[in-house]
C-alpha cells in the first residue's frame, strides 16, 4: 500500500473508519490477485501459499464470494494423489530466482511422482496448517446460492476429505491420532523458538549450495538466521530425496503442534457441516442413499473432533504453564518429550468448541498474563513469550505479533463468551492493520510494521473482522450448530 493511501485514510478516519478500511483492504487484495488466486505479497511471496489462501478466502468472501471460491479451487487443483495439499503452488511466469526454495529445488513432478504430485503444475512437497475446510464452509455461507449453482461444496468435499485423511493417517507419526509436522515451514510459524530444540539435531545445509532470496526484500535482523535457514534447507532436501514418503517414519524432525492440530479439528467440524449440508441437498433431490452416506460421515467427523480434542489435551496440555506445548517426537523416550517453550501456538486451541471450560479459562489467564500481555503491555498477542530468553520483537515468529494468530484468538475468545476481550482485540487488530500499511507482522508493543506491506491475509482478516456480522452470537467460527 502506498503512503498516499495511508494519508488519505488518516484524513478520513474520524468520519468513516470502517469505509476507509474496507477500501484500503480491498485495494490490497485486488492488487495481489493474479486472476485465479492471491499472492501473499507481490515481491517477497510471489506464488500461492496454502494457509494464506485459506485466510485470504475468508476475507475475500465479503468482497467477492466468486473470487473466494476460485482461491480455494485453484489451490486444491494442485493437490497430490496421496491427499496432501502442498504449501506452495508455483506460478510458472515468476522467474526461478525470485523465491527460494524454487520449483527446481522441490522437483515435485519427479521426486513427488510416487506420492501423486500433479504433472501439470510445480509445487512444494510439504504442507501447511489445514484451515481449508473451515474456509470453504465460510465462503459457502457468504453466498449459498452461488455456491450451489457452481456445485462448490460438492466439488471440494472429496478433496478436503482426502486432505484430512492424509493428515490423520500418513502423518500420525506419534501413533496417538494427532498429525505431526516434519518441517517448521509446515506448522506455519517458521522461525519460532519452539523449534530450536528439535532443530538442534539437524545438520545445516552448505550455505554455498543455495541463495536466500528472502534477504532481497527483508532486513536480515527481521528474518531467520543463516544457521536456522540452513537447517530448514537440509530438512527439505532429505524429505525430497526420500521422495516425500511418510511410510518410512519421521526423519530428524517430527513435532505434534497444538495450533496445527487445533485447526485440523476445527476443519473436521467444518467438513462435517459441509457434509450435512450436502446430505440435505441430496435428500431434497431424492438421492436418499448418498444423503444417508454423507450424514453418517458427518456424524463420524463430529465424534472424531471430540476424540481429537481429548487427545490434544492428553498429549499437549501443560497445566503448570497454563497452555499447550509442542511434542518433539524425535526426542529420547517412547513418546518423545514436550518442548518447554511458550509460543502462541499453545493458545490457538482456544478456537475449539469442545474444549473444557477450565482449560479455556486458564488459556485466557495465560494470554492476559506476563508471558503474552493481552490487555496489558502488548497491543497484540506476540508469537512468543514476552519474558522468554529468545524473545525478539522484530525477528520472524520469535516475538512479533501476527494477524492470523490474533484473528484466531479473537474468534476463540468470542466462541467461549468473552466478548469484551474479543472486542478489544478486534479493535486493536483493525487499528494495527491500517496504521502498519497491512504489514506482514508488527511489534507487539508498538504495532510498528515489519516484513512485507500490503500483505494478503492481513488485509483479508481485517476485512473479516470489520464485515463479519456474527459477532453478537456465541457460535465462534462455525456457528452454534456445530455441537447441536
TrEMBL record:
Entry annotated with the keyword Hydrolase: yes
Superkingdom of origin organism: Bacteria
GO biological-process terms attached to the record: oligosaccharide metabolic process; protein N-linked glycosylation
Domain (Mannosylglycerate hydrolase MGH1-like glycoside hydrolase): residue spans on this chain: 45-458
Keywords from the UniProt entry: Glycosidase, Hydrolase
InterPro entries attached to this UniProt entry: 6-hairpin_glycosidase_sf (IPR008928), 6hp_glycosidase-like_sf (IPR012341), Glycoside_hydrolase_63 (IPR004888), MGH1-like_GH (IPR054491)
GO molecular function: Glc3Man9GlcNAc2 oligosaccharide glucosidase activity
SUPFAM superfamilies for this protein: Six-hairpin glycosidases (SSF48208)
Matches recorded under PANTHER family: MANNOSYL-OLIGOSACCHARIDE GLUCOSIDASE
Family stated for the protein in its record: Belongs to the glycosyl hydrolase 63 family.
Record-given protein name: Mannosylglycerate hydrolase MGH1-like glycoside hydrolase domain-containing protein
Taxonomic source organism: Streptomyces formicae
Upper lineage: Bacteria, Bacillati, Actinomycetota, Actinomycetes, Kitasatosporales
Amino acid at each position: 500500500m502506498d503512503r498516499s493511501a495511508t494519508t488519505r485514510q488518516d484524513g478520513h478516519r474520524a468520519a468513516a473508519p470502517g469505509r476507509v478500511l474496507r477500501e484500503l483492504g480491498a485495494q490490497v487484495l485486488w492488487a495481489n490477485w493474479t486472476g485465479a488466486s492471491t499472492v501473499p505479497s507481490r515481491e517477497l511471496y510471489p506464488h500461492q501459499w496454502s494457509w494464506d489462501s485459506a485466510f485470504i478466502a475468508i476475507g475475500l468472501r465479503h468482497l467477492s464470494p466468486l473470487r473466494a471460491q476460485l482461491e480455494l479451487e485453484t489451490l486444491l487443483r494442485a493437490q497430490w494423489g496421496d491427499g496432501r495439499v502442498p504449501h506452495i503452488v508455483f506460478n510458472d511466469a515468476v522467474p526461478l530466482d525470485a523465491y527460494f526454495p524454487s520449483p527446481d529445488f522441490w522437483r515435485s513432478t519427479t521426486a513427488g511422482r510416487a506420492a501423486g504430485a500433479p504433472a501439470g503444475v510445480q509445487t512444494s512437497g510439504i504442507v501447511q496448517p489445514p484451515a481449508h475446510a473451515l474456509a470453504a464452509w465460510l465462503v459457502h455461507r457468504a453466498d449459498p446460492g452461488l455456491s450451489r449453482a457452481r456445485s462448490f461444496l460438492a466439488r471440494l468435499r472429496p478433496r478436503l476429505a482426502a486432505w484430512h485423511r492424509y493428515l490423520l493417517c500418513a502423518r500420525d507419526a506419534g501413533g496417538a491420532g494427532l498429525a505431526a509436522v516434519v518441517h517448521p515451514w509446515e506448522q506455519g510459524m517458521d522461525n519460532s523458538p519452539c523449534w530450536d530444540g528439535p532443530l538442534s539435531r539437524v545438520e545445516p545445509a552448505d550455505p554455498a549450495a543455495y541463495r536466500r532470496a528472502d534477504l532481497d526484500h527483508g532486513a536480515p535482523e527481521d528474518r531467520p538466521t543463516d544457521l536456522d535457514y540452513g537447517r530448514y534447507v537440509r530438512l527439505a532436501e532429505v524429505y525430497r530425496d526420500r521422495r516425500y514418503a511418510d511410510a518410512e517414519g519421521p526423519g530428524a524432525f517430527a513435532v505434534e503442534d497444538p495450533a496445527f492440530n487445533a485447526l485440523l479439528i476445527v476443519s473436521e467440524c467444518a467438513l462435517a457441516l459441509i457434509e450435512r449440508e450436502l446430505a440435505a441437498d441430496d435428500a431434497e433431490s431424492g438421492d436418499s442413499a448418498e444423503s444417508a452416506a454423507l450424514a453418517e460421515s458427518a456424524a463420524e467427523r463430529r465424534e472424531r473432533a471430540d476424540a481429537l480434542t481429548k487427545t490434544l489435551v492428553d498429549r499437549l496440555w501443560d497445566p503448570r504453564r497454563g497452555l499447550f506445548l509442542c511434542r518433539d517426537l524425535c526426542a529420547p523416550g517412547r513418546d518423545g518429550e514436550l518442548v518447554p517453550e511458550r509460543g502462541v501456538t499453545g493458545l490457538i486451541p482456544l478456537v475449539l468448541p469442545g474444549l473444557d471450560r477450565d482449560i479455556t479459562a486458564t488459556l485466557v489467564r495465560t494470554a492476559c498474563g506476563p508471558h503474552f500481555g493481552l490487555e496489558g503491555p502488548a497491543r497484540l498477542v506476540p508469537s512468543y513469550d514476552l519474558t522468554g530468553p529468545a524473545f525478539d520483537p522484530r525477528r520472524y515468529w520469535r516475538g512479533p505479533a501476527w494477524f492470523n494468530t490474533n484473528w484466531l484468538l479473537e474468534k476463540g475468545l468470542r466462541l467461549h463468551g468473552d466478548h469484551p476481550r474479543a472486542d478489544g482485540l478486534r479493535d486493536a487488530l483493525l487499528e494495527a492493520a491500517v496504521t502498519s500499511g497491512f504489514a506482514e507482522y508488527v511489534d507487539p508493543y508498538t504495532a510498528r510494521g515489519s516484513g512485507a506491506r500490503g500483505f494478503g491475509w492481513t488485509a483479508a482478516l481485517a476485512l473479516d473482522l470489520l464485515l463479519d456480522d456474527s459477532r453478537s452470537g456465541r457460535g465462534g467460527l462455525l456457528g452454534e450448530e456445530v455441537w447441536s
